[in-house]
Each structure stands twice: as C-alpha cells, then as structure tokens.
Design brief:
The structure holds two protein chains of two kinds. Chain A is an alpha/beta fold. Chain A is built from twelve helices and eight strands. The chains are: A alpha/beta, B alpha/beta. Chains A and B meet through loops of A and helix 1 of B.
Chain lengths: 329, 293
C-alpha cells in the first residue's frame, strides 16, 4: 500500500513538473548546460540508416593499408581480468611495442590499458617507448564505491605513472536522473587526475537508449572529460556503431559551440579489421581529419590488433592468414 | 487456375546458414537437352575465407564432442537422407543419371553414412597404440583430428563423390570446407539442407559452389586450412594444390577411386586426416631388468 502511495505521489510530482514551463534553450546555443537543458533527442532510425551507409563505403587497397596501420596506432591494448599477473602485463606491453617484428615498418599501439595495481609494472615495461599507460579506475567496472575510494583509486594510478585514466560513471545514479551527482563525480575525478588525460566510460550497454547515451555524453564533456568512451567491455552490448555515432555527434556539437576538441574511444567488441575501418570512416565523415590520430581517437581492444596484422599480411601476400602464426593475446 | 511453380534457389552453405555468394555472381547449368536447370552461386575467394572462419570457429567444439555423440549425429544424417531419398533421385536424374543408377547412388550414400557413423567411436582404438621404448617410460600414441580440411569434391559425381570425402573427415573430428562439383552441383546444396537438419553443429561442414579454376587457389593456400583432400585425376590441379600447400605444410591427400564401389570406404580415409600425438610418461621400471615397458 505504501509503495502504491509512493508511486502515486511520484506520478503526481512528475505531472506538476511537466506542467511547469521548462526553461529550455536551443540545444546548440553557446551556453548549453546539460544539467539545466535537454540534450537534443536522437533519431534512432536515422542513426541506424546513417551507420548502415557508412558501412558500405568502398576503400581502395592502398588507403586500406594506410587505414589499418592507423588503426594499430590507435589501439589501447587492453587486459582487464581478475587473473592478470605481472607476467601477462609485461608480455602485453612487449606486444604493444613490437606488434610484428617480422614485418618492419608497423607502428606501436597508442597505449596499454590495465588495472591500477598493474600501472607501475606496465610503466616500467614500456619505458623508453611512446606507448602510454592508461589505467581504469573508480572501482572499475561497476563504479559502485564511495567517492573517496574512487579518488584514492585514481590518485594511486596517477602516482604510479598512469598517463591516462579511464573512469566509469555511476550508471545507477544516472538512470535515476541524478545528473548533478554524476557531473560532480566526474569533475572530482578530473581534478584528481592532475596532468593525466581523463576518459569517461559511459557503459552504454546499461544506458538503454541513445537519448541517454547523448545525455551522458553531454554531462561527461561538460564535467571535464578529455575523452568519452563507450564501454567497460564487461557488459554486452559493448561498443556499437550506433552508440559511437551518437557520441561523435555530441563531440561535434560541443566542438561547434566551443571550439574545444574531445576524444572518442569505442571499446569492447571491435575485433575485426573491417569493423575498425568502418569506425575510421565514421570519424572522418562526422568529425573530420583532425580526429584521425591517436590523440583524439582510440580503440579499446585486445584481439583487434592480431586481426589487423593478419589483414595487413594478407593484403601484401594475397594469402589468408591463420592466428596460429601470430602471438597469443 | 494453373499454378506458378516455385523454383529453388541453390545457395551456398556457410556456418549453418544459406547465404548467396558475397560476389553476387552466378552461373547456369543445363541438362542433356540444353534446358537450364538452375542458377548456381559462383563463389569467390571471400566466400571460401568466410567458410574457413566458420569451420575454424566450430572446430574445437566438434573435436571435443564425445566419439559416441559424433556417431549419433552421423547416424542422424543418414536418417535425414533416407527421408529425402526421392528428392535426391530426382535431382540425380535431372543431372543426367539413369533411374537405376540414381537409386543406387542414394542408397550407397545412406549406407556409407551409417558406415562412418559406426567408425566414430572405434577408430581411436585401432589407430592408437602403446609403444615399446627402451627407457623407464610408458609411451603411447593417440590420434587427434588435423583441423580444418578443404575438400575438392569429385567433378564427375554430384553426391557420392562428395560425401565419400566429407564423412571420414567429420567422423574423425575435423571440420571442412567443400568445393562441390562445378558441373553437377545440385545435390551438394540439397545435402547441405540435410546436414542443417541433422544436429550437426553449424560450421562443421561448409559447402561452396563455383569455378574450380578460380577456387582451388584459396582452398589450397589459406594458412588456416590444415589439410586438403582432392578427388580426381587432373595432374595440373594436383600439382597446384601441392605447391600451394607448401606455405604452411598442409597435408594433401588425393584419391582417384570409383566412389560407386561399395569398397571405396575404409578406416584409412579417417586416419589420413588424423595427427598422431605421442606421450612419454615417466614410470618406474616394471617387469624386471630387460623389460622396456
């Protein structure tokens, strides 16, 4: 009975709120604030059609090889398992720097992505190379911890040498409409990051709708994210083209309003060279060439690197490759 | 009112599905009187690649099935073949076979399926061994499936020449990619429909149709294919396959048998696609000073 009354009063309250004239501004006005204004709504059917068209672009062989090398250079080679050991992390760091020694001229990956406890080991392992260390933090992957724990988690990673912090937002709070909480948390972590760049993981697989993805993107961007990232990789679905497109549009609108560039990192579920090229096409056609470098675009992946390598070798030899002849990851 | 006959589209079989070729190409085949019998997919090397990926993906699971379960599934294929007996006879006759020969071919196909179903849980015992060695080891060899097998089916047979190669491969726990006969492809697709309703996991058998001259190369040089099986006697094709196999030292097996003979089936067709794993297990000397094991 009490529950019934409670839900009834919520209904009543929301009716009042709806009746109140909303203080809406045009979504593209320069003083847009996601905590006070509605984010532009997302046309799901339109997004799907646009994404489907992007996937049909034909790419000539020479561009494809260039694209694949760019993909390698944009990968955050990732291991985020409970069973990670220093040995596994060192081996992955070696792989990040030496993707395929038998084939000279390939770039290293952009970064390696590990848990905070592995940051020190990874930092030592990539010493002297351009490979950066990204660390997940804020009680990854669930984010279910008090703010002080999340701050400690972040500071620990930064003190151990992390160049980049991948934080998760509090999805429960977001879905309950507590946008201010989510905003404040991101802002606090951003402060704790110091010089490290902050990637904010929205975990879009739990956000249900593209409208929510757009809202979360706007909040993260306004709270100080340097990058917005789709997923932890622990929830299905992880990165999809539709979700990434929606986030890219949030970045584009922000750039058009303020001139400030924000990076994008789809993560989880991108395991083929072909899919990765589709993402590059999408970035080029939405944000433009300026984003086509690992400073502004990353792939969070573990098995993608091998597929790209196999594809590069296939294009040069004409023979389809087998994973038997590439390093295990 | 007269009824418009619904003609069957012969599509290829990859990963338990019936896609059209990704290339969008097709070729026509004709019966003896020059009448067109069907539009057949002219597969490309990308279709072969997709088929190999499907076969690789399912290989681990299929190889680890219990021998008895593989046997059950092969027997189930025989049951499904029996149910479609008339359809196969009809298709064989459309492709120029006499009724008597068509009946013989489908009957032999069913019997051969049951024959290899029987072998599934028996070949390991016959092909494995305990080996005499002169050290304090228990030494034994067991057979394991080779992996993904590409099969170039017999060009002069629509059904029996193809299944005679597929069955020993899958009975032994391999997965395969099959290139059907170019001029007699009808039964290959109907056989795929049989497989698809036989509890055979998707991807264990994948069948493509198309031009031999074009597809032998991707069937032979794919690095993720572990063995190639060929039926026929075209010396140029055999030479080419052997050359292509060099890159990853594929096993190449060629057969030139009369598949309509009841004897054209044996244990050695299974063992041709098996790898021998030998294990040395240290033990105390048993059985006195001179005994080796």
């Amino acid at each position: 009975m009490a529950a019934f009354l409670l839900s009834f009063s919520y209904l009543f309250l929301s009716l009042i709120l709806l009746k109140k004239p909303m203080n809406k501004l045009k979504p593209f006005s320069s003083d847009f604030d996601p905590l006070r204004h509605e984010s532009p709504s997302v046309d799901k059917v339109g997004v799907e059609e646009r994404v489907a068209r992007i996937q049909t672009r034909s790419i000539k062989n020479e561009s494809k090889i260039q694209g694949l090398k760019l993909v390698l250079n944009m990968i955050d080679l990732t291991t985020l398992e409970g069973k990670d050991t220093p040995g596994k992390v060192k081996q992955m760091c070696y792989k990040a720097m030496h993707l395929l020694d038998a084939h000279p001229g390939l770039p290293a990956t952009a970064a390696v992505c590990v848990y905070p406890s592995m940051v020190g080991i990874a930092k030592a392992a990539v010493k002297g190379s351009d490979v950066k260390i990204a660390s997940v933090s804020t009680a990854f992957p669930s984010g279910q911890a008090p703010l002080n724990v999340k701050l400690d988690d972040t500071r620990f990673a930064v003190e151990n040498g992390a160049d980049e912090i991948d934080m998760v937002i509090s999805r429960g709070k977001f879905l309950s409409g507590e946008y201010q909480f989510v905003f404040d948390e991101i802002a606090a972590i951003k402060e704790a990051c110091g010089k490290a760049r902050l990637k904010v993981i929205l975990e879009t697989g739990e956000l249900v709708t593209l409208d929510n993805v757009r809202k979360a993107s706007d909040i993260a961007i306004h709270a100080g994210a340097d990058f917005i990232k789709t997923s932890t990789g622990k929830i299905q679905p992880a990165a999809t083209m539709q979700v990434t497109y929606t986030m890219l549009m949030a970045i584009k609108d922000h750039y058009d309003r303020t001139g400030v560039m924000i990076g994008m990192k789809p993560a989880g579920g991108i395991s083929t060279a072909k899919a990765a090229l589709h993402y590059l096409v999408m970035v080029k056609e939405t944000l433009g060439d300026a984003w086509l470098s690992n400073e502004w675009f990353r792939f969070g992946a573990s098995s993608l690197a091998n597929d790209v390598l196999m594809q590069i070798i296939k294009m040069e030899t004409g023979v389809y490759q087998s994973s038997d002849y590439f390093s295990i990851d | 009112m007269s009824r418009l006959e619904i003609l069957k589209t012969y599509k290829i079989y990859i990963g338990g599905q019936f896609p059209r070729t990704e290339s969008g190409r097709y070729y026509q085949i004709q019966d003896g009187k020059g009448k067109v019998i069907g539009n057949i997919c002219m597969s490309s090397k990308k279709d072969v690649r997709n088929a190999v990926s499907a076969a690789r993906k399912t290989f681990g699971g299929w190889a680890e099935r219990s021998a008895f379960n593989r046997s059950q599934i092969l027997y189930r294929i025989a049951e499904m073949l029996e149910g479609r007996r008339d359809q196969f006879i009809n298709e064989l006759m459309i492709q120029g076979s006499s009724k008597a020969n068509a009946e013989k071919e489908i009957d032999l196909t069913i019997d051969r399926t049951v024959y290899y179903a029987g072998w599934c849980d028996k070949y390991q015992q016959l092909l494995s061994s305990v080996n005499p060695v002169s050290s304090a080891h228990f030494n034994f060899s067991v057979v394991e499936p080779t992996g993904v097998v590409s099969i170039i089916a017999d060009e002069n047979s629509s059904l029996i020449g193809m299944i005679s190669l597929i069955l020993p491969a899958i009975a032994g726990g391999n997965t395969c990619v099959v290139l059907a006969s170019e001029k007699l492809p009808l039964c290959s697709i109907t056989f795929a429909e049989v497989l698809n309703t036989s509890d055979l996991p998707a991807g264990v058998v994948n069948i493509v149709t198309g031009k031999r001259a074009e597809l032998i190369e991707p069937m032979g040089n794919h690095m993720d294919v572990n063995a190639t099986v060929y039926s026929g006697s075209n010396a140029d094709e055999i030479k080419k396959l052997k050359e292509l196999a060099v890159q990853n030292v594929k096993r190449v097996k060629t057969y030139n048998k009369k598949w309509m003979n009841e004897e054209s089936q044996d244990l050695y067709m299974i063992s041709d696609l098996q790898e021998v794993k030998t294990t040395w297990h240290p033990i105390e000397n048993i059985g006195g000073a001179t005994s080796s094991y």
